[in-house]
Amino acid sequence: MPNTVIVTREEPIAVVQINRPEVRNALNDEVMSELVAATRRLDDDEAIRCIVITGDEKAFCAGADIKEEFVKATPVSMLAHDLTSQWEALRHIRTPLVAAVSGYALGGGCELAMICDVIVASETARFGQPEINLGIIPGAGGTQRLTRAVGKYVANEIILTGRFVSAAEAKAIGLAAQVYPAATWLEDAKALARTIAEKPPVAARLATEAVDLAWNSTLDAGLEFERKAFYLLFATEDKKEGVDAFVNKRKAVFKGK
Question: What fold does the segment set 5-197 form as a domain?
């Protein structure tokens, strides 16, 4: 049987690809476990400074494997399943995560993209939270992260109708950072990841933490974290390197120290 998650190292980046094309890369226990394990290993690898999560050209991830996960599910079995721990593990990956979306990113697939730090899309991408059509609602952060990304009224309209959102609309409403041509979407996403990977790793990690805090806390708490992180970075070798490179008009080489 093929691996459900394939990891390709292209230092200083890595690509983590969901590999269940027969079911449009739908999520099940095996996929989630492998996804968490792969990203954790890469997160501990100093040679990897940005991680791209993707699927294939037809589907980033079409959501949960409904036949496998939902048909016989009960409240007790869902509680015992403890999906929250897997999603929380992904949320706490420190290395910047780029979701490279082509084709469908629906339900859990849309939620997986939103757990990443940056979402970029092929012009073929289609986002959505169609759980309402199954008599349920998003259960892995969709109601919360989508609302924070696009606002209450747009989020409600998308979730209550279950409609799909095009790549162009996703960018217009703030759900995607960039839209790339269908012919080059993955290479473009990797180029973005390499740009991120060139930046000082400690600063990059603190930046994503600060932005996440803007979602999850008050303005005062976010400002306090930002200020302390800003001061802390003045103790790093990368800060000295960045300033010296700027003053001497050369390219900085960051070491993550």
Answer: 2-enoyl-CoA Hydratase; Chain A, domain 1 (3.90.226)
CA distance 177 to 211: 15
Q: Is 1's pLDDT higher than 50?
A: no
Sorted by where each begins, the domain ranges of the chain are: 5-197, 201-247
**Tens digits of per-residue pLDDT, 22-67?**
999 999 889 999 999 999 999 999 999 999 999 999 999 998 766 6
Burial class (CB in 10 A: 0-12, 13-18, 19+), 135: exposed
Active site (annotated) includes residue 170 = no
CATH topology of domain 201-247: Lyase 2-enoyl-coa Hydratase; Chain  A, domain 2 (1.10.12)
Active-site pick, 14, 26, 64, 170: 64
Query: Considering 108, 109, 128, 242, which one is annotated as catalytic?
Result: 108
Mind listing the pLDDT tens digit for each residue in 69-98? 666 666 766 666 667 788 899 999 999 999
What does the alpha-carbon distance between residue 147 and residue 143 come to, in Å, rounded to a whole number? 6
**Residue 168 catalytic?**
no
